[in-house]
Amino acid sequence: MKLVFALLTGLVFGTGIAISGMMDPAKVLNFFDLAGTWDPSLAFVMGGALVVTFVGYRLAWRREAPLFGGRFQLPTSTDLDAKLIGGSALFGVGWGIAGFCPGAAIPALGTGRWEVVLFLIAVVVGFFLRRVLLTVTPKGSTS
């Protein structure tokens, strides 16, 4: 049953991405073009997502445990370290250059555009590169 709900959640997310037009990188990039062809629709999509998330968390926290899991798994660290800030910056730069974020790129695979495939390959390579760098660099090292 857990996989059925995961599939349904993904379908709802993908449908929302498609309806909002966020699978089109030009629409996303126009949001960042304040001096040119600015398109504020991404702000409305994000605002809608924040409202749904806010309500969803309020409902979820009323439960003792998640529907499909033994306990809620929350981050324990509140540190703003170089990995978090660097990763966030890299995400933002990549999103601004490509017009895709990983969440929107997965449903965009259905468009058949080669740019989407290239972007997702770069994301996967980045995941593996991060893993390799973390195993090569000793903990506590700043290099």
Automatic annotation (TrEMBL):
Q: Which domain of life is it from?
A: Bacteria
Membrane-crossing residues? 42-61, 82-106, 112-129
Q: Which UniProt keywords apply?
A: Membrane, Transmembrane, Transmembrane helix
Stated name of the protein: Sulphur transport domain-containing protein
